[in-house]
Amino acid sequence: MESGGSLKISRCPQEQGNEENSTACNHIENLELDSAESSAQDSRPFSHKRADKEGRSEESKKASSQVLASNLDDTLGSLIPVYSQPILKKTLISKAYLTYMELAALEEKCQSVEHTQAAAVKDPTPPYDYWETLMISRRRLLLEHLHFFLITHHPSAPPQLRNLAANHSMPARMLQHGIHSFLESLQTREPYNKKHMLEFMHWAYLIVALLCKTVPAFEDTWIECLGDLGRYRMAIEDEDMRDRDTWAGVARSWYTKAADKNPMTGRLYHHLAILARPNALQQMYYYSRSLTCVKPFGSARESIMTLLNPILGCSKASFTQALPIDACFIKAHGLQFVGDSVKEEQTTEEFLSAKAEFLESLSDHIGRVTAKWKDQGVWIAVTNIAGWFDFGVDDNALRQAFLIELSEKAKESVSVAPKTSAIDQPDPLQPSATPDEISGKLAQLTKRLIFKNARLLFNDTFALALRRVGDKNVLSHVNTKLAFIVSLISNRYISICFDDIPWTEVIAFLNTLLETETQIHQPSPTNLLAENLFPAGDERPDELPLPEDYLSRGLIWTHGFFPKNWFDRERDEEERYIEHASTARNRTNRILRLGYALAKHDRWISYDDPTHTFRVSSKAS
């Protein structure tokens, strides 16, 4: 959804049509037959459905009329006690069958009515009862979905019944046919139907919020849908900007919860990028994150152009919201993104000029915004790193190297512990390159001028931050970039030259940081550096994930960097970005340990135990 435009929510492919409905009914009938055979009380086959269906229809009509009345909250709430009482297995199966039949019929009717009436109504302002009729049918469809989920996930439901919703894509069908398609139809006729949109969104929000509490098996889907509804609500609010900001905050909160549960899913960061307006730098960060996480969202490559085109001068739209320094930074990366930073085998003046303008203003900008650069510095670091990965191009050799490593670790984990959770042990995208091919592909990548430009922008920004010795506001930026370098060097498939990293500045920064830390807290430098980068088990219980850990979680290069259970130590969601006194010290210690991890390679820098100082390695070229 772009400002002033229509909102399109990308969804997974779904099972649809009569074949799908027939298959689902057959599955339920098989369950019914199994139940009938095992029941001593009633061995009737599925032939008693007609009598039950009549009763169910009356219940459905009664419930629908109540829910379509005025007090939606009370009516929906009254459904929960009914579906939490003990129910016989065969009764549940019967109810599931009847509910699914009504649901499927309503689903088909909704699609048919919408297509027929949309073609028939030529007036740009169709009659009031047109939308009213469609809205009532959508409400009934959502209510039937709610009944179906409550029945199939009843405490007494057998596993086969519980699996029906997932096996037949019921959450996706509910969202697509029950919510998104209707809202998109309404939005094409805004502002004539704003009242209907508000009323329906309130209804849909209640249904999904209720499902979030009562059917946690699909909690991830419900949470993301609540974010979608918040975005819709924000999009149509054009009168009260405070209400618009409020709904943007609601959507942002739900998407953040969804991203916490699925940090490797790029689609969620794409949604957050849209909500980041008018903060152009934050938008660029979220788009970069969406494209370079473990499961990138390809559509973000199109959406990001709404941010880049005005800055690159490719559209007439004005872009007055971006600060000049942010515009220069985004322009440099935008030129890289569209391939215009190189022309005739040479770096273009336009790219070099944008980079120079950004760097000339950066030090003063950091001094002016002070603590705000703790977050901004991470946004810049993540975007700089995205340039190394060609902003998510699938055949990028670095991405392939990390995918190979992740794939191998996943196979090892499955053989050792096959019951690990999906979040901790994902099924990474299969690499398109083999281990034997990756070395040659990396060699080709390092020769590309666009890749050299990406490294130049990364290193020049890094060097400037490192020269601000003593400024705690640059520590999060330094931490993120050192983590990336350690992650690269730790990957056994990545063998590229790192001589262009500003090692002299890194060494000076580390030595000053180590000296300051030992003077203030008086720890033994040897003990401090020798500790593991991350605490294991119950070690160092006061050491929690840093704010920048959350800001880089799920990226292709951080997935193997953070320990599996690292984020189990998380603070309350409200406090994770608060800078406590312990945050600064833990960040300092992390940076020093990262430096020590690099020094142990003794390739670019080394550590001298007698003098407790970092220095240039004797093996450095």
UniProtKB/TrEMBL annotation:
Protein name as catalogued: DNA/RNA-binding domain-containing protein
Query: What is the species of this protein?
Result: Exserohilum turcicum (strain 28A)
May I have one GO cellular component term?
Answer: telomerase holoenzyme complex
Q: Where is the composition biased (Basic and acidic residues)?
A: 49-62
Q: Name one GO molecular function term.
A: telomerase RNA binding
Q: Which residues form the DNA/RNA-binding domain?
A: 251-350
Q: Origin, by domain of life? A: Eukaryota
- Where is the stretch described as Disordered? 1-66
Which Pfam families would you find in this protein's record? EST1_DNA_bind
Q: Which PANTHER family match?
A: SMG-7 SUPPRESSOR WITH MORPHOLOGICAL EFFECT ON GENITALIA PROTEIN 7 (PTHR15696), TELOMERASE-BINDING PROTEIN EST1A (PTHR15696:SF0)
Q: Where is the composition biased (Polar residues)?
A: 13-25
Protein's GO biological process: nuclear-transcribed mRNA catabolic process, nonsense-mediated decay
